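# step 3/5: fold
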Amino acid sequence: MHGADPSMLFLEGENGSPGYYYLLTTGHNGQIDMARATTLAGLKNGLTKKVWSDATPSRCCDLWAPEIHYLDGSWYMYYTASGNNSNDHRLHVLKGGAEPWSEYTYLAQLTSEWGIDGSVIRFSQFFRSPDGTEIWNIFHAEPNPQGSCGPSRYVMAERVFFDEESETPKFQKAMSLSKKQKAPSGEGNSCGLVENPEPPQN
């Protein structure tokens, strides 16, 4: 799946219904997209919809770093946008309904100061497995070793392992796209994701 600035969460289903992963990304199409699926691998071809785009001149462009938070009975989406000048990025918020998949409406600009990648608290790049026993990291990667902010960026997710003594995360170089890894714990059938992830070596 192509996209940048991903954030994700997993919500348990109610009354026997399945839980869903909700993935937010942005791209060069000037909109925020949301995908959902019952498995992490399913997001690649899962149900996707445009959540937001904006023709208002002061916030029409460079929609970046969306993430959602549930506050007081509603979902709120925080993101960055600018006009045609990349020096005028501001933080904005949309208001949704009682479900992440709800429609969103524009609520407010949060500050008059320049800013990007704002949030209530920036944790959505980390998410828990469906059974709550693992922590995973979602991020965008780039096949160009020199780096690029172009449309070739794609979304990756990997399990986070922790140092046993310091209990700090052990980050490593992103694995290649061809490597398979075990699905997040609690998904049930992890068909197609057969290799257990190995903790990073010191």
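# step 4/5: annotate
Residues 190-202 have pLDDT under 50 and may be disordered.
# step 5/5: archive (pending)
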